[in-house]
Design goal:
By secondary structure, the chain is of the alpha/beta class. The protein is built from 13 helices and ten strands. The protein has a single domain, classed as TIM Barrel. α7 crosses α8 and α8 runs parallel beside α9.
Protein backbone atom coordinates (compact mmCIF):
# COMPACT_ATOMS: atom_id res chain seq x y z
CA UNK A 1 0.00 0.00 0.00
CA UNK A 2 1.28 3.46 -0.87
CA UNK A 3 1.75 6.23 1.66
CA UNK A 4 -1.28 7.94 0.16
CA UNK A 5 -3.42 4.84 0.74
CA UNK A 6 -2.15 4.45 4.32
CA UNK A 7 -2.98 8.07 5.06
CA UNK A 8 -6.43 7.75 3.52
CA UNK A 9 -7.20 4.66 5.60
CA UNK A 10 -6.04 6.39 8.79
CA UNK A 11 -8.26 9.37 8.03
CA UNK A 12 -11.22 7.07 7.35
CA UNK A 13 -10.69 5.42 10.75
CA UNK A 14 -11.22 8.78 12.46
CA UNK A 15 -13.94 10.09 10.14
CA UNK A 16 -16.16 12.82 11.58
CA UNK A 17 -18.96 11.52 13.76
CA UNK A 18 -17.55 7.99 13.89
CA UNK A 19 -15.31 5.82 16.05
CA UNK A 20 -13.90 2.32 16.34
CA UNK A 21 -15.42 -0.70 18.06
CA UNK A 22 -12.83 -2.71 19.97
CA UNK A 23 -14.12 -6.28 19.59
CA UNK A 24 -10.66 -7.86 19.92
CA UNK A 25 -11.09 -9.51 23.29
CA UNK A 26 -8.94 -12.62 23.55
CA UNK A 27 -10.60 -15.96 24.26
CA UNK A 28 -9.69 -15.56 27.92
CA UNK A 29 -10.92 -11.98 28.21
CA UNK A 30 -14.26 -12.56 26.53
CA UNK A 31 -14.75 -15.52 28.88
CA UNK A 32 -15.12 -12.99 31.71
CA UNK A 33 -17.67 -11.00 29.71
CA UNK A 34 -19.72 -14.10 28.90
CA UNK A 35 -19.44 -15.38 32.47
CA UNK A 36 -21.04 -12.14 33.69
CA UNK A 37 -24.21 -13.07 31.77
CA UNK A 38 -23.89 -16.81 32.53
CA UNK A 39 -23.11 -17.82 28.93
CA UNK A 40 -20.61 -20.59 28.13
CA UNK A 41 -17.37 -19.47 26.49
CA UNK A 42 -17.68 -21.55 23.33
CA UNK A 43 -16.52 -20.62 19.84
CA UNK A 44 -20.12 -20.59 18.62
CA UNK A 45 -21.26 -18.24 21.40
CA UNK A 46 -18.33 -15.93 20.70
CA UNK A 47 -19.18 -15.98 17.01
CA UNK A 48 -22.88 -15.36 17.61
CA UNK A 49 -22.18 -12.41 19.90
CA UNK A 50 -19.85 -10.77 17.39
CA UNK A 51 -22.37 -11.37 14.60
CA UNK A 52 -24.98 -9.59 16.71
CA UNK A 53 -22.76 -6.51 16.90
CA UNK A 54 -21.58 -6.55 13.28
CA UNK A 55 -25.08 -6.92 11.79
CA UNK A 56 -26.62 -4.05 13.75
CA UNK A 57 -28.47 -1.95 11.18
CA UNK A 58 -27.37 1.69 11.22
CA UNK A 59 -24.13 1.11 13.14
CA UNK A 60 -22.06 2.14 10.11
CA UNK A 61 -23.35 5.68 10.66
CA UNK A 62 -21.26 5.84 13.85
CA UNK A 63 -18.65 3.08 13.52
CA UNK A 64 -15.73 3.51 11.12
CA UNK A 65 -13.83 0.34 11.98
CA UNK A 66 -13.82 -2.77 14.15
CA UNK A 67 -10.76 -4.32 15.80
CA UNK A 68 -11.00 -8.11 15.60
CA UNK A 69 -9.23 -10.97 17.34
CA UNK A 70 -7.43 -13.63 15.27
CA UNK A 71 -10.29 -16.11 15.74
CA UNK A 72 -12.91 -13.51 14.84
CA UNK A 73 -11.19 -12.40 11.62
CA UNK A 74 -11.40 -16.02 10.46
CA UNK A 75 -15.08 -16.42 11.36
CA UNK A 76 -18.22 -15.88 9.32
CA UNK A 77 -21.90 -15.18 9.85
CA UNK A 78 -24.24 -18.09 10.33
CA UNK A 79 -25.06 -17.82 6.63
CA UNK A 80 -21.38 -18.05 5.68
CA UNK A 81 -20.33 -14.44 5.00
CA UNK A 82 -16.80 -13.76 6.35
CA UNK A 83 -16.87 -11.07 9.02
CA UNK A 84 -14.27 -9.01 7.15
CA UNK A 85 -16.54 -8.94 4.07
CA UNK A 86 -19.65 -8.27 6.15
CA UNK A 87 -18.01 -5.22 7.69
CA UNK A 88 -16.40 -4.02 4.47
CA UNK A 89 -19.71 -4.18 2.60
CA UNK A 90 -21.11 -1.73 5.17
CA UNK A 91 -18.19 0.65 4.75
CA UNK A 92 -16.68 -0.41 8.09
CA UNK A 93 -12.94 -1.10 8.07
CA UNK A 94 -11.87 -4.46 9.56
CA UNK A 95 -8.79 -4.39 11.79
CA UNK A 96 -6.84 -6.93 13.81
CA UNK A 97 -5.10 -7.14 17.18
CA UNK A 98 -1.55 -8.35 16.49
CA UNK A 99 0.24 -8.29 19.85
CA UNK A 100 0.72 -11.43 21.95
CA UNK A 101 -0.34 -9.90 25.28
CA UNK A 102 1.88 -8.94 28.20
CA UNK A 103 4.61 -10.59 30.25
CA UNK A 104 6.63 -9.35 33.25
CA UNK A 105 9.45 -7.02 32.26
CA UNK A 106 12.73 -8.80 33.05
CA UNK A 107 14.34 -5.85 34.81
CA UNK A 108 11.16 -4.87 36.68
CA UNK A 109 8.84 -7.89 37.04
CA UNK A 110 5.96 -5.91 38.54
CA UNK A 111 5.67 -3.95 35.30
CA UNK A 112 4.42 -5.43 32.01
CA UNK A 113 5.97 -5.57 28.55
CA UNK A 114 3.97 -6.47 25.44
CA UNK A 115 5.30 -9.31 23.31
CA UNK A 116 4.65 -10.39 19.73
CA UNK A 117 7.31 -8.88 17.47
CA UNK A 118 8.63 -12.32 16.43
CA UNK A 119 6.82 -13.36 13.26
CA UNK A 120 4.84 -10.11 13.14
CA UNK A 121 5.68 -9.31 9.52
CA UNK A 122 4.38 -12.72 8.43
CA UNK A 123 1.22 -12.35 10.53
CA UNK A 124 0.55 -8.90 9.08
CA UNK A 125 0.92 -10.22 5.53
CA UNK A 126 -1.57 -13.00 6.27
CA UNK A 127 -4.04 -10.64 7.95
CA UNK A 128 -3.92 -8.30 4.96
CA UNK A 129 -4.88 -11.23 2.72
CA UNK A 130 -7.76 -12.02 5.09
CA UNK A 131 -9.11 -8.50 4.60
CA UNK A 132 -7.65 -6.50 7.50
CA UNK A 133 -6.97 -2.83 6.80
CA UNK A 134 -5.40 -1.84 10.10
CA UNK A 135 -3.76 -3.34 13.18
CA UNK A 136 -3.60 -2.75 16.93
CA UNK A 137 -0.85 -3.25 19.51
CA UNK A 138 -1.49 -2.43 23.18
CA UNK A 139 1.33 -1.39 25.47
CA UNK A 140 0.44 -1.45 29.17
CA UNK A 141 1.95 1.17 31.47
CA UNK A 142 1.36 0.44 35.14
CA UNK A 143 1.60 2.95 38.00
CA UNK A 144 2.88 1.29 41.18
CA UNK A 145 3.03 3.39 44.34
CA UNK A 146 2.80 6.55 42.21
CA UNK A 147 5.76 5.47 40.08
CA UNK A 148 6.43 4.02 36.63
CA UNK A 149 10.01 3.16 35.68
CA UNK A 150 11.81 4.64 32.70
CA UNK A 151 12.76 1.09 31.75
CA UNK A 152 9.11 0.05 31.35
CA UNK A 153 8.14 3.16 29.39
CA UNK A 154 11.14 2.94 27.04
CA UNK A 155 10.81 -0.81 26.44
CA UNK A 156 7.12 -0.53 25.59
CA UNK A 157 7.67 2.56 23.42
CA UNK A 158 10.35 0.81 21.40
CA UNK A 159 8.11 -2.23 20.89
CA UNK A 160 5.23 0.02 19.76
CA UNK A 161 7.50 1.77 17.27
CA UNK A 162 8.90 -1.47 15.85
CA UNK A 163 5.37 -2.85 15.53
CA UNK A 164 4.12 0.30 13.79
CA UNK A 165 6.95 0.23 11.26
CA UNK A 166 6.28 -3.45 10.46
CA UNK A 167 2.53 -2.86 10.07
CA UNK A 168 3.05 0.06 7.70
CA UNK A 169 5.53 -1.98 5.64
CA UNK A 170 2.74 -4.56 5.21
CA UNK A 171 0.32 -1.84 4.04
CA UNK A 172 -1.68 -1.78 7.28
CA UNK A 173 -2.40 1.29 9.41
CA UNK A 174 -1.13 0.76 12.97
CA UNK A 175 -3.20 1.80 15.96
CA UNK A 176 -0.55 2.81 18.50
CA UNK A 177 -1.97 2.13 21.96
CA UNK A 178 0.06 3.16 25.01
CA UNK A 179 -2.35 2.65 27.93
CA UNK A 180 -1.57 4.09 31.36
CA UNK A 181 -3.77 1.84 33.48
CA UNK A 182 -6.50 3.11 35.80
CA UNK A 183 -5.61 0.35 38.27
CA UNK A 184 -4.41 1.76 41.59
CA UNK A 185 -5.01 4.63 43.97
CA UNK A 186 -2.89 7.26 42.20
CA UNK A 187 -4.20 10.80 41.74
CA UNK A 188 -5.10 12.46 38.47
CA UNK A 189 -1.90 14.50 38.78
CA UNK A 190 0.20 11.33 38.84
CA UNK A 191 -1.67 9.96 35.82
CA UNK A 192 -1.03 13.20 33.94
CA UNK A 193 2.69 13.06 34.68
CA UNK A 194 3.06 9.41 33.64
CA UNK A 195 0.95 9.94 30.51
CA UNK A 196 3.19 12.87 29.52
CA UNK A 197 6.34 10.80 29.97
CA UNK A 198 4.81 7.93 28.03
CA UNK A 199 3.61 9.92 25.00
CA UNK A 200 6.87 11.88 24.80
CA UNK A 201 8.85 8.62 24.75
CA UNK A 202 6.48 6.89 22.30
CA UNK A 203 6.66 9.65 19.70
CA UNK A 204 10.42 9.85 20.00
CA UNK A 205 10.58 6.10 19.34
CA UNK A 206 8.19 6.41 16.38
CA UNK A 207 10.43 9.11 14.89
CA UNK A 208 13.54 6.98 15.29
CA UNK A 209 11.76 4.00 13.70
CA UNK A 210 10.77 6.20 10.71
CA UNK A 211 7.07 5.57 11.23
CA UNK A 212 4.87 7.75 9.03
CA UNK A 213 2.74 9.73 11.48
CA UNK A 214 0.11 10.60 8.85
CA UNK A 215 -0.56 6.85 8.57
CA UNK A 216 -1.20 5.97 12.22
CA UNK A 217 -4.01 6.38 14.76
CA UNK A 218 -3.10 7.00 18.40
CA UNK A 219 -5.14 5.16 21.04
CA UNK A 220 -4.21 6.60 24.44
CA UNK A 221 -5.81 6.65 27.86
CA UNK A 222 -7.59 9.73 29.14
CA UNK A 223 -5.98 11.46 32.12
CA UNK A 224 -8.02 10.13 35.04
CA UNK A 225 -7.33 9.21 38.65
CA UNK A 226 -6.79 5.59 39.63
CA UNK A 227 -9.97 3.61 40.29
CA UNK A 228 -9.10 3.30 43.99
CA UNK A 229 -8.26 6.99 44.45
CA UNK A 230 -10.64 8.65 46.93
CA UNK A 231 -10.71 11.87 44.91
CA UNK A 232 -11.88 11.49 41.34
CA UNK A 233 -11.44 14.33 38.84
CA UNK A 234 -14.51 15.96 37.35
CA UNK A 235 -15.39 15.77 33.66
CA UNK A 236 -13.99 19.21 32.81
CA UNK A 237 -10.79 18.55 34.73
CA UNK A 238 -10.23 15.27 32.88
CA UNK A 239 -10.84 17.01 29.55
CA UNK A 240 -8.48 19.90 30.30
CA UNK A 241 -5.66 17.69 31.60
CA UNK A 242 -5.96 15.22 28.72
CA UNK A 243 -5.92 17.94 26.09
CA UNK A 244 -2.95 19.64 27.75
CA UNK A 245 -0.91 16.44 27.53
CA UNK A 246 -1.94 15.78 23.94
CA UNK A 247 -1.15 19.32 22.78
CA UNK A 248 2.31 19.05 24.32
CA UNK A 249 3.28 15.64 22.97
CA UNK A 250 1.20 14.56 19.93
CA UNK A 251 2.32 16.06 16.59
CA UNK A 252 -0.34 17.65 14.39
CA UNK A 253 0.67 15.24 11.60
CA UNK A 254 -1.25 12.46 13.41
CA UNK A 255 -4.72 12.41 11.78
CA UNK A 256 -6.63 11.26 14.81
CA UNK A 257 -6.72 10.12 18.41
CA UNK A 258 -9.15 7.32 19.30
CA UNK A 259 -9.36 7.07 23.07
CA UNK A 260 -9.64 3.81 24.96
CA UNK A 261 -12.20 3.71 27.76
CA UNK A 262 -9.93 1.82 30.14
CA UNK A 263 -12.49 0.79 32.74
CA UNK A 264 -14.68 3.89 32.65
CA UNK A 265 -18.44 3.39 32.61
CA UNK A 266 -20.28 3.81 29.33
CA UNK A 267 -21.59 7.27 30.20
CA UNK A 268 -18.31 8.48 31.74
CA UNK A 269 -16.39 7.61 28.58
CA UNK A 270 -18.94 9.46 26.46
CA UNK A 271 -19.03 12.54 28.71
CA UNK A 272 -15.24 12.86 28.75
CA UNK A 273 -15.00 12.56 24.96
CA UNK A 274 -17.78 15.12 24.55
CA UNK A 275 -16.11 17.62 26.90
CA UNK A 276 -12.87 17.46 24.95
CA UNK A 277 -14.51 17.90 21.56
CA UNK A 278 -16.51 20.84 22.90
CA UNK A 279 -13.21 22.67 23.44
CA UNK A 280 -12.14 22.60 19.78
CA UNK A 281 -10.76 23.35 17.29
CA UNK A 282 -7.97 20.82 17.72
CA UNK A 283 -5.14 19.71 15.41
CA UNK A 284 -6.39 16.11 15.26
CA UNK A 285 -9.74 14.33 15.20
CA UNK A 286 -10.71 13.20 18.72
CA UNK A 287 -12.51 9.90 18.41
CA UNK A 288 -13.18 6.72 20.40
CA UNK A 289 -12.06 3.11 20.28
CA UNK A 290 -14.13 1.57 23.06
CA UNK A 291 -14.69 -2.04 24.09
CA UNK A 292 -16.76 -2.35 27.24
CA UNK A 293 -17.95 1.27 26.96
CA UNK A 294 -19.70 0.36 23.69
CA UNK A 295 -20.70 -3.21 24.47
CA UNK A 296 -21.69 -3.52 28.12
CA UNK A 297 -25.37 -2.62 27.76
CA UNK A 298 -25.68 -4.78 24.64
CA UNK A 299 -24.10 -7.74 26.41
CA UNK A 300 -26.45 -7.41 29.38
CA UNK A 301 -29.46 -7.15 27.05
CA UNK A 302 -28.43 -10.20 25.01
CA UNK A 303 -27.83 -12.75 27.80
CA UNK A 304 -27.02 -15.36 25.15
CA UNK A 305 -30.64 -15.60 23.97
CA UNK A 306 -31.53 -15.30 20.29
CA UNK A 307 -34.83 -13.70 21.30
CA UNK A 308 -32.86 -10.81 22.79
CA UNK A 309 -30.74 -10.00 19.71
CA UNK A 310 -32.87 -7.02 18.64
CA UNK A 311 -32.81 -5.52 22.13
CA UNK A 312 -29.04 -5.97 22.32
CA UNK A 313 -28.55 -4.36 18.92
CA UNK A 314 -30.72 -1.43 20.01
CA UNK A 315 -28.52 -0.95 23.10
CA UNK A 316 -25.34 -1.12 21.02
CA UNK A 317 -26.67 1.32 18.41
CA UNK A 318 -27.66 3.76 21.15
CA UNK A 319 -24.17 3.77 22.65
CA UNK A 320 -22.59 4.16 19.21
CA UNK A 321 -24.90 7.09 18.48
CA UNK A 322 -24.16 8.78 21.83
CA UNK A 323 -20.42 8.58 21.15
CA UNK A 324 -21.00 9.78 17.59
CA UNK A 325 -22.61 12.91 19.07
CA UNK A 326 -19.70 13.28 21.51
CA UNK A 327 -17.36 13.42 18.52
CA UNK A 328 -18.62 16.94 17.84
CA UNK A 329 -19.39 17.99 21.43
CA UNK A 330 -23.15 17.62 20.89
CA UNK A 331 -23.84 14.92 23.49
CA UNK A 332 -25.95 15.62 26.57
CA UNK A 333 -27.28 13.65 29.53
CA UNK A 334 -30.79 14.59 28.41
CA UNK A 335 -30.27 12.45 25.30
CA UNK A 336 -29.49 9.45 27.50
CA UNK A 337 -32.69 9.95 29.48
CA UNK A 338 -34.75 10.48 26.35
CA UNK A 339 -33.49 7.18 24.96
Amino acid sequence: MTNHALDATARAMVARGKGILAADESTGTIAKRLESIKVANTEENRRAYRELLFTTAGSADYISGVILYDETLRQSTKSGVPFSKLLGDQGILPGIKVDKSVKPLASSPEEPITEGLDGLAERCAEYAKLGARFTKWRAVIKIIKNHTSDAAIHANAEALARYAAIAQAAGLVPIVEPEVLMDGDHTVEVCEHVTERTLHTVFNALYLARVRLEGIVLKPNMVVAGKECKTQAGVEDVAERTLRVLRRHVPAAVPGIAFLSGGQSEEEATMHLNAMNAKGPLPWELSFSYGRALQQSALQAWKGESANVKAAQKAYLHRARMNGLARSGRYSAAQEKAA
